[in-house]
Amino acid sequence: MKTVKVQPNQNVFDLAVQHYGNVEAVDEILRLNPDLENDAAALRALKIPTGNRQAIFCMDAAVESGSPLKVDDTSKLMNNSNLKKINNSTTTYETYESWQKRLNQSKKK
């Protein structure tokens, strides 16, 4: 078992791919980390109430940046044949603002 820190804008799918090599490990991540919370700004951007972040966990929203994350590096879900060292954070999450900026830049071309 090892503990890593969640990087900005990573959701649980990103974390599963980065640390296990596949999205099938999402259930294990949630089981090992029952106190995992979404980033409040990510929830607001998705128009999801942020009153009790532990009661509502949105799988598609970013996890709180800097949160400790337990990873079972001996898990049968660990896909070592697909894993390689990823030096930068893996994220599929994009804020509305960054998406809008990219959209506006592409319209100018």
Characterization of this structure:
The protein has helices at residues 12-20, 26-32, 40-45, 96-108; strands spanning 2-5, 68-71. The protein is mainly α. It has one domain (2-108). The chain has a two-stranded antiparallel ribbon. The relative contact order is 0.27.
Strand content: 5-15%
Give the number of DSSP strands.
Answer: 2
The helix-strand sequence is EHHHEH
Q: How far is the N terminus from the C terminus?
A: 49 Å
* Number of discrete helical segments: 4
**What oligomeric state is this?**
single chain
Mean pLDDT over the residues: 82
Number of domains: 1
Shape: globular
Read across the widest sheet, the strand sequence of neighbours is 1-2
Largest sheet: 2 strands, antiparallel
Estimated radius of gyration: 15 Å
Structural class: mainly alpha
Secondary structure: helix percent? 25-40%
- Low-confidence segments, ≥5 residues, pLDDT <50? none
